């Protein structure tokens, strides 16, 4: 596919950005009672499996630098959703873990993400979804 001949309305990257913004608005509306920013929702969603992560690991998972993530973690810690502590065996690494309220929020976020995804993809054939993942994988590889 020649990128120079693609009109903006058919650009994969611009369409991905539009879809991202639409999804963030939808999630903000559905999770309004949590009073969290999109970045906070993303961080909690990535911690939802209950495994603690270092700030570097979480930054890679959420797609941001650890220095940028720090303010998000500060807010989540003030709200009582996470704790930060020293990682066993490595005092230089900070381990981020969910608290009880963080686990509850992360569980709600996970259910909401699954519900939104299910509704959005319900009418699509499996081949279309597989193609979507192939495109995303190619974009991720390009950025790696």
TrEMBL record:
<keyword id="KW-0804">Transcription</keyword>
<keyword id="KW-0238">DNA-binding</keyword>
<dbReference type="Pfam" id="PF12802">
    <property type="entry name" value="MarR_2"/>
</dbReference>
<dbReference type="InterPro" id="IPR023187">
    <property type="entry name" value="Tscrpt_reg_MarR-type_CS"/>
</dbReference>
<dbReference type="InterPro" id="IPR036390">
    <property type="entry name" value="WH_DNA-bd_sf"/>
</dbReference>
<keyword id="KW-0805">Transcription regulation</keyword>
<dbReference type="InterPro" id="IPR000835">
    <property type="entry name" value="HTH_MarR-typ"/>
</dbReference>
<dbReference type="InterPro" id="IPR036388">
    <property type="entry name" value="WH-like_DNA-bd_sf"/>
</dbReference>
<protein>
    <submittedName>
        <fullName>MarR family winged helix-turn-helix transcriptional regulator</fullName>
    </submittedName>
</protein>
<feature type="domain" description="HTH marR-type">
    <location>
        <begin position="9"/>
        <end position="141"/>
    </location>
</feature>
<dbReference type="InterPro" id="IPR039422">
    <property type="entry name" value="MarR/SlyA-like"/>
</dbReference>
């Amino acid at each position: 596919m020649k990128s120079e001949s693609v009109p903006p309305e058919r650009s994969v990257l611009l369409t991905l950005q539009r879809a991202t913004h639409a999804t963030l608005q939808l999630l903000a509306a559905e999770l309004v009672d949590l009073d969290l920013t999109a970045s906070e929702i993303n961080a909690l969603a990535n911690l939802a499996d209950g495994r603690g992560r270092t700030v570097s690991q979480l930054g890679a998972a959420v797609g941001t630098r650890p220095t940028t993530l720090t303010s998000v973690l500060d807010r989540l810690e003030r709200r009582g959703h996470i704790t930060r502590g020293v990682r066993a065996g490595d005092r230089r690494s900070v381990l981020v873990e969910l608290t009880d309220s963080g686990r509850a929020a992360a569980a709600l976020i996970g259910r909401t993400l699954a519900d939104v995804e299910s509704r959005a993809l319900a009418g699509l054939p499996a081949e279309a979804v597989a193609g979507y993942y192939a495109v995303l994988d190619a974009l991720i590889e390009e950025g790696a």
